[in-house]
């Protein structure tokens, strides 16, 4: 455990940030899995609704720097491709 006041603060803030980042990343993964599950069940309405949520969560994670913006774009593109194939 650090003795210097600024180092103590850094530990506290990094733990708080880590907790927040973990929450956002977990919510993103859950939204993507929910969309994939709806696509697997051929449920078009659920897939469309959950895709909007998943895309939003991916964008927010990319904006916060949790995942790269190109990775978010790639995941959204692949989900959209599968969703659109289901609708066709």
TrEMBL record:
Pfam families, alphabetized: Ribosomal_S20p
Function: Binds directly to 16S ribosomal RNA.
Gene3D superfamilies: Ribosomal protein S20
UniProt-annotated stretches for the region Disordered: 1-22
Cellular-component GO terms for this entry: cytosol; small ribosomal subunit
One GO biological process term: translation
Family, as annotated: Belongs to the bacterial ribosomal protein bS20 family.
HAMAP family listed in its UniProt record: Ribosomal_bS20 (MF_00500)
Identification of the protein by name: Small ribosomal subunit protein bS20
Single Gene Ontology MF annotation: structural constituent of ribosome
Lineage, highest ranks first: Bacteria, Bacillati, Bacillota, Bacilli, Bacillales
Keyword set, alphabetical order: Ribonucleoprotein, Ribosomal protein, RNA-binding, rRNA-binding
InterPro entries reported for this sequence: Ribosomal_bS20, Ribosomal_bS20_sf
Gene giving rise to this polypeptide: rpsT
